Amino acid sequence: xxxxxxxxxxxxxxxxxxxxxxxxxxxxxxxxxxxxxxxxxxxxxxxxxxxxxxxxxxxxxxxxxxxxxxxxxxxxxxxxxxxxxxxxxxxxxxxxxxxxxxxxxxxxxxxxxxxxxxxxxxxxxxxxxxxxxxxxxxxxxxxxxxxxxxxxxxxxxxxxxxxxxxxxxxxxxxxxxxxxxxxxxxxxxxxxxxxxxxxxxxxxxxxxxxxxxxxxxxxxxxxxxxxxxxxxxxxxxxxxxxxxxxxxxxxxxxxxxxxxxxxxxxxxxxxxxxxxxxxxxxxxxxxxxxxxxxxxxxxxxxxxxxxxxxxxxxxxxxxxxxxxxxxxxxxxxxxxxxxxxxxxxxxxxxxxxxxxxxxxxxxxxxxxxxxxxxxxxxxxxxxxxxxxxxxxxxxxxxxxxxxxxxxxxxxx
Length: 412
What we know:
Blueprint: E1 6-10, H1 14-23, E2 27-30, H2 50-60, E3 63-68, H3 77-87, E4 93-96, H4 99-107, E5 112-114, H5 123-131, E6 136-138, H6 145-154, E7 158-165, H7 177-182, E8 200-202, E9 207-208, E10 214-215, E11 221-223, E12 234-236, H8 241-246, E13 251-254, H9 261-279, H10 285-295, E14 303-304, E15 327-339, E16 344-349, E17 354-355, E18 359-364, E19 368-373, E20 377-379, E21 382-384, E22 386-387, E23 392-396, E24 405-411
Parallel strand pairs: 1-2, 1-13, 2-3, 3-4, 4-5, 5-6, 6-7, 7-13, 12-14
Antiparallel strand pairs: 7-12, 8-11, 9-10, 15-16, 15-24, 16-23, 17-22, 18-19, 18-24, 20-21
């Protein structure tokens, strides 16, 4: 039996970080606002957050990896170097894709992993990266499972591979469509995802007015069908996770730093159970079916096997434009008090009503994600069946905090 692989979870904020840890992640990866492939304010931490990130990870035994895998321009070297210096005491490794950043990591003696953005797709390249000090390589997503296994056997460093989440239509995510269309570079973590959009084809020069401007008639334009011609299906590896373990992959990476906390919790928990089942010889078709239904509850497009069993083809593209999640969350309100000894939360209802027997989730930066069935509801001495907007109610919950958000989980 191969060594138990690491489950590597995305973290876009503290709620996601805590959800990943609570769900059983062995490691988390995150960004600090710039120089990573999700350089958006809503899915990044700040340098000042590093001590708390480190504290939570070390308390749980999880490793922390900082993504610095965007390209670096000439005027940014000092800023990136200062980021490495600031993060060095708090992270276990840096994820990099620029040779300049590699050099800075070597200069400061920090461990680094080579991002999939480098398109490492063979053992010769991986061995060269190892000679330059890399301790891990995230292989190109274009590698088949057979190629991954062969590379693992031939190199002296760890191999990391994606196992779940969104797939980019471009080779290793190096796409220029967003830059050309919107001035937002995917290689700088700013992708606007034009590949996920609908396209209208029209003859721009079919007619023109007296000034030469194009005139369009209704019969000169048509929507491209299916309209998701460049939108790749999401990767889901639960059905062949045993083969990935057998290949000797050291780390199973879950995509989704732009996803919400329930996505992180649900997907990480599913892969935790799957890997543990493989290692204990309890991996069965029934378990795969159960876990697949679990991950279908949160954001996803159509599922596929990525490129593990063959190069791209027509079957790699989704027919659906939006998420196919089987559940959706509705905002109920916020926790306005928590009585620790009694284990009871007081919830102010702001939107969707709170009803006894409903499945609810509580989200918070310290709480993470807690899911439960709402039990007895009370308002002082009154026992309630529901509490509507503008009112409040108390119910028994696991530990949560004032300000945590409460959601109703509705099945589609």
